[in-house]
Amino acid sequence: MSETDPARYADRPGPRGRGQLRIYLGSAAGVGKTYAMLCEGHRRAERGTDVVAAFIETHGRPHTAALIEGLEVIPRQRLAYRGTSFEEMDLDAVLARHPEVALVDEFAHTNVPGSRHEKRWQDVEEILEAGIDVISNVNIQHLESLNDVVEKITGVPQRETVPDAIVRAADQVELVDMTPEALRRRMAHGNVYPAEKIDAALTHYFRAGNLAALRELALLWLADKVDEGLQRYRAAHDIHGTWEARERVVVALTGGQEGDTLIRRAARIAARSAGGDLLAVHVTRSDGLTGANPAALAAQRRLVESLGGSYHQVVGDNVPDALLTFARAENATQLVLGVSRRNWLSALLTGPGVSNRTIRGSGDIDVHIVTHGQMGRRGLPRARGGLPLRRQLAGYALAVVLLPLLTLCLAPFRNAINLTSDVLFFLAAVVAVALVGGFVPAVLTAVAGSLLLNYYFVPPIHQFTISQANNALALGIFVAVGLAVSSVVDGAARRSKQAARASAESELLVTAAGSVLRGQRALTAVLDRVREAFGMESVTLLERAPGPAGPRGPVTGWVPVATSGGPELTRPEDADVDVPVTDSLTLGLRGRALPASDRRVLGAFANYAAAALEQQRLAAEADAARPIAEADRMRTALLAAVSHDLRTPLASAKAAVTSLRSRNVHWNKEDRDELLATADESLDRLTHLVDNLLDMSRLQAGALSVFPRAADLEEVVSRSLDDLGPAAREVIVDLPATLPEVQVDPAILERVIANVTANALRYSPPGSPPRLTASALTDRVELRIVDRGPGIPEADRDRVFVPFQRLGDTDNTTGVGLGLALSRGLTEAMGGTLDLEDTPGGGLTMAISLPAAQAPERAGTPSAASAAGAPDAG
Amino acid sequence: MNPRVLIVEDEPALLRALRINLRARGYDVATASAGREALAEARRRPPDAVLLDLGLPDGDGGEVIRELRGWSRAPVIVLSGRTGPGDKIGALDAGADDYVTKPFDMEELLARLRAALRRGEQPGMGYRYQP
User: Fold this and answer.
1) Torsion of CA A411, A417, A418, A423, to 10 degrees
2) What ipTM was estimated for this complex?
3) Nearest-CA distance from A753 to chain B in Å?
C-alpha cells in the first residue's frame, strides 16, 4: 500500500520537470469549482497554452456544460465492474496526449476497482510526474483530516477522501467561495441539482447551518495553509518572533466620554487577529458612588456588545490591581487604557496614575495607552462634603511656601512699605490658601500670618508685643477677614460638591426612571443600576410572603422577587443595607455599609423598584387576559368553520337523499345514480372529517394508541394511494428497491401519507402530478412528496401546521386546516418528523422522516457509495 | 318559457344535486362557484331567481346580493351553513328574499323557490325592493 502512503508525496523536493498542481477548494457542491476550473482552462488556452479536459463532470448543469465547448476533451475510459459499466479518466490517453495543462475534475474521486490507481489523486500524481500541469478541484469534506468533523456537522459519512498533505503540497490552492444563502438560492432555482435528484441526504446536507460550518472549515483550512506558507517564508528568510494566534483584548472603561474611542480601538486590535475576543471592564470602587455616568456606561456596554464583545464589571478599590486580576483571569493578551484624564499638576501631587501603575504590574500583558479627546479633563467630582484631602494638603503646602517667602521679601523693605501694605500682602496669601485648601488651612495661615506680622513688621520688631493699639486692631481685623474669606471659599466649594452630587444623583434617578418607563425588564434594570451605582455585590427586592392566614395574617418570611448580581438575599436581616419600601416590600443590598447621605437616593431607587414591580405585575395580568379574549374570538370563528365543514357534506347528502325520496318527479337511471353517488361521496367526506376531528382530539388529549412495528414503506404507500381513489392514479411513485423497513404504525402512516398526498394533488397544476420519492439516511428513512404547485412562503410554513388555522366558512378546498396539522401530529407520535421545503424550481416538498427499523447496512461498492452518499462533487 | 335559475355554490356535490333536481323539474339552470363568476353570469343572461351560498371563495355572499340588487329584482334565496340570527338578518337586509339553512330538505327548498318566483310574477305588484 505504499502508493497510498501520503508521506511519500508530501514535502517531496519538487523535481525539475514535474508539473504544477493548482487546486480549487470549495465548501460544498454547487459553489462553482468545476466552473472556475474550466474558466482557468479557457484563460490559459487563450494565452496559447495546450490545455485539455482530461475528465470533467458537469452534473447536468447547463452553464458548466457550455464551458467545455472549445476545449479538447480526452474520451473517457469504460470499465466493467460487477456487470455495470463505469466511466473513468483515461490516464494512459492523457499521458500519451501529453498536453501542457490537464483539467481533472473531482480530485478525491475513488476509481472503480480494476483501475490502475485506487484514487484519482494518484492518477493526478502520475500526470504531474510526467511534467504536465494539472488543474483540479476538491471539496472541503473530502479532506482526510476533516472527515470526522464533516461527518459530525452533516451527519453524512465521507468515503471519498484525499490526504491533506497531498492538497497542502499543491503549488496553488484557491478557494471558490459562496455564501450559504447564495448557494441555497442557487439550489432552490434548480441550478445545482434537478428536483428529481434531491433526496433526504441532499436536503440535510444543504441546510444553511451545515453550509455555514463547511464554509468556515474551508476558510480556516485555507488560512492554515496560507499561514503555513508564511511560516515557511519566515523560516526561509530567517524571520523570528512569535505570532499570537488569537488576541483577547481587555478594554478598561471609566464611564467617561473617551470610552467609545477606547472600545473601537480595542475592537480594531481584536479584529486584527482572526477570532480575537473583546472584553470591556469597568472597575467600581467600593467607596461611595462611583462617579461614573451609568447612562454612558450603559451606552458603552451596548457598543461593546454590538462589536461582538462582552461587558464586565468588577469591584475593587485599587483600580490597577482589579484590572490586572481581571485580565489575567480572562487570559487577556492585550489591555487597552485611556490616557489619564488628570492634569500634570494633580499627577505630580498624588503620584503615578492608574495607567502607570497598571503598566508596572502588567507582566506579559501588552498595555496600550490610547489618547483621546478627554485628556487632562477632570471627571465628575466625588460626591462627598468638603474639599478633598489633596486640596487641603495643597493649601498647607502653599501656606508653608508663601508665608516665609512674603516675610523674606517684605522684611528688607520694612521702612519703605508701611504696615497696611504688609497686612494686605499677608491677607492676599490667606485668601490664596483659602481658595486652594479651604477653611482649616486658611485659619492656620491667618493665625501664623498674624504672628509673623507681629514679630517681623509690627514695632517693636522681633518681639511678640504690640506697642500701639492701632496695630493690634489691624492684626485683629486681618485675622477676622482671613477667617471670613476662607469660610466663604470653603462654603462655596462645599456647595459646588453638593451641586455635583445632586446632579449625579438626579442623572442616576433619571436613567432609572427611564428604564421603568420603557418597561421591558424594568425591575432588573433598576436593580442593576443600584448595584452599579453603589458598587454592591448584590441587590435584591424582597417581598413578604403571605402567611397561611392570607396577606394580613402572621408573617412567615420573605421571598426574593428580583435580584441583580449574586448571591440572592432571602431575608432583609442578611443585607448590609436594608431599605423598606412598603409594608410588604424591602430592598436589600449586600456588599458594604452605605453612608447616610446615600440613603436618600437609595430610597428613591427603592420606590422605582416597587413601581417597576407593580408595572411588571400589571403587564403580566394584561398579558394573561389577552389570550383569553383572543381565544374567545378564535372559538367563535372556529365554531363557524367546523360547523361549515360539517354542514356542507351533510347538506349535499341530505339534498341528494331527499330528492331521491321525492314522489312528484320520476328520476331516470342516470340522475338516480348521480344523486346516489353524490350522497355517497358526501358521506365519505363527512366520515373522513369526523375521523380527523376524533384523531386530532385524541392526539391533543394524548390518548392516541400507536403500535409501531417494522413495516415496508412501499406497501404502506400503495395502500395510502388506494385510499385516495382514482385521483391518486397520476401520482408518480419512485421508491428505491433497497429501502430499509421503517419502524412505524402502518395504519397511522397510511393516513399521514394519504392526507399529505391529497394535499399535494390538490395544489398540483395539471400535467405536473406530485412525485413520491424515498431515501435512507443513516438510521432514518425519508419519504418526500414533491409537488409543483404554488408552494407556501417560508413565513407561513409554521402556520399551516396549526390545527383549525382556517377560520370562517369561505373556503371549501382546504377544510379547517386539520390535514397537515394532523399529519404532523401523527408522524411525531411515531417518532418521525414532517417538514416543508421548497421544491427546486417551484412548488412544495413535504419531507416525512421516519425511524428505520434497523440501521441500514452501509453500501460497500463504489457505485452504491456515490449513489447513496452525499454530494460528492460539483 | 321555463324560469331561469342561477345556482351559486362552491361545494361541487351540492351544486350537482341542486342542478339535477331543478333540471328534472323543468327549470333552465345556470351555475357558478364564486361571486364574480355569478355576477358575470347574471349580467350575461339575467336569471328569474338566484340560489346563493353565503360562504364563497372570493368573498361574502352578502356582497353578491348587494351588487345584484343594484340592477336586478330577481328573487334571491340564500343557502347557508350559518345559522345565527345575525347572519339571517344581514342577508335579508342586504336584499335576500328567503334564507334556508343547510342541511335542508330538497322539497322544502323547491317549494320556497316556487313561492319566490310566484311573488316576482304577480301582475301589478312587481318586485319592490326597499332597503
Assistant:
1) -60
2) 0.85
3) 25
